[in-house]
Amino acid sequence: MDIEGGTYEPGFVGIRFCQECNNMLYPKEDKENRILLYACRNCDYQQEADNSCIYVNKITHEVDELTQIIADVSQDPTLPRTEDHPCPKCGHKEAVFFQSHSMKAEYKYRTTKCS
Fold first, then answer.
1. Sign of the CA dihedral running 5, 7, 11, 12
2. Which residues form the DNA-directed RNA polymerase II subunit RPB9-like zinc ribbon domain (predicted)?
3. What is the reported pTM?
4. Alpha-carbon gap, residue 1 to 100, rounded angstroms
5. pLDDT at 8 > cutoff 50
């Protein structure tokens, strides 16, 4: 997974320690300058984070879950719709379309009637 110039595997990115007292540093937002800092809770030591990623969570789904998602996708009001691709089974014209993650450049069409 690429995040701001680095490649990270799912999970915790790392632990940092204070250069003054050797306690653990915690992520802290500098709202004024809009940057991420690591700050010691024991002393006033702070250092700017070289990357804004503090944790990576990669979610993978089982095939059974994906089948249910595709079955329900025709009812999603947020997906774009088209009437240019009639269903080969029922002839219904309205369909929703979306890009499948398993097929990188392929769009999937599901009719709103028989899916």
1. negative
2. 16-69
3. 0.42
4. 18
5. no
